[in-house]
Amino acid sequence: MLKHKIIIILSLVFVVFMTVLFILYLIKDDSSRWMVALGGILVSALPISLLFVKHNPFNIPIIIGFYVFVFCTTFLGSIANFYVDFKWWDSTLHFYKGIFIGFVGIALYKFFIPQGARKDISSWIIFLFVLSLSVTSTVLWEIYEFAGDLTFTQTMQRGGNKDTMYDMIFGLTGGLLISIYSSVQKNHDNLQR
Fold first, then answer.
1. What is the distance between the alpha carbons of residues 190 and 28, in angstroms, rounded to a whole number?
2. 38 within some domain
3. In whole angstroms, what is the distance from residue 101 CA to residue 167 CA?
4. Is pLDDT above 70 for 164?
5. Which of 12, 30, 64 is a domain's end point?
6. Taking the chain, what is the end-to-end CA distance rounded to the nearest angstrom?
7. Do 104 and 189 reside in the same domain of the chain?
8. Whole-prediction pTM value?
9. Are 134 and 159 contacting, i.e. CB atoms less than 8 angstroms apart?
10. Which of 20, 69, 72, 193 has the fewest CB atoms within 10 Å of its CB?
11. In 3D, which of 108, 126, 129 has the Cα closest to residue 189?
12. Taking the CB of residue 57, how many other CB atoms lie within 10 A of it?
């Protein structure tokens, strides 16, 4: 199956890449970067668990989108210092994350709600589900950044409350766009029946 091959290839490439970075920065005694690389190894291997489920609810663009997010946050953002060098990088990734998690929400909705039952579900329910998933992911990411700054680094929330609010606004905006899309798509599907 093509999805399985993509998961295996991307997981292996990212795990090997992050392992090389982990070893390199461990030797250089750069604790901030080797910890990020170690986290990158773990996160890159997560999709392998999808190989063991009977039905994988995520399509190929979502799987690739996950690895784009991992690469942009761990390598470009933290290791290559894009978070520090480009002030817009963090907010852009929060916007992307809001969109990405919105599409994950749509995939989960289609996976867990049988085709026959979908016609009876309000477009507002889909809108709220997708939006709440995006917002929840934004809040959890901000908690992760806060905890990371308290324990390992002091670089994740350089702007303090202002950074947190911008991140939440951009995450909400990305999620809101996909929530509107899912609601419009649901209404369009209802009109075609």
1. 59
2. yes
3. 15
4. yes
5. 64
6. 32
7. yes
8. 0.88
9. no
10. 193
11. 126
12. 15
